[in-house]
Amino acid sequence: NAGVTQTPKFQVLKTGQSMTLQCAQDMNHEYMSWYRQDPGMGLRLIHYSVGAGITDQGEVPNGYNVSRSTTEDFPLRLLSAAPSQTSVYFCASRLGTQLKPTQSGYGYTFGSGTRLTVV
Amino acid sequence: AQSVTQPDIHITVSEGASLELRCNYSYGATPYLFWYVQSPGQGLQLLLKYFSGDTLVQGIKGFEAEFKRSQSSFNLRKPSVHWSDAAEYFCAVGESGNTPLVFGKGTRLSVIA
User: Between A40, A42, A111, which is nearest B43 by CB?
Assistant: First the structure.
């Protein structure tokens, strides 16, 4: 299993450009989410999805769009990049939203991150 | 709404000394609690987790954490710190179902000789 794969690992954008951060998992996880990490702020939730066709906003959704057309993929789109979106982005997934933590297989898997710089 | 507080932004300890990183949560029911570690430029690695049962949980790399419901705390401990433990540590709270994982802002650990 590859786990959670994020691409690209590094990206530099100019203000106003658009791009898509890719996140793919091969574990048949229902739950997927995007976080951004900034110094002193920890990880803040951007968007999450509990299954194909279902997405919801997190703490800091402005400037980002997501969709979930398949179980495997959960891309994060920046429509018009701003310097405030310079950050490290992490994708995380989890098996079955109805699975209890005491059940086998429960646990979050994180991707290795995408470092984005907007100039 | 769930929230997680890590009161210490930065802690410095001597190698071989004991360590305790604090974590307090705000949550109505019994939370599911996690500690993650992040080395510079790396992703997140799960150290340990608490769901139910014994309130003292053991993790990897010699870490342990104790859940104290009365204090809404889940502090991370290690009896003897090694230089390789220098990293950032995150406490997180979640649950089953559709509620996302919520992270604290992290505690940066420096280890000196």
Answer: A111
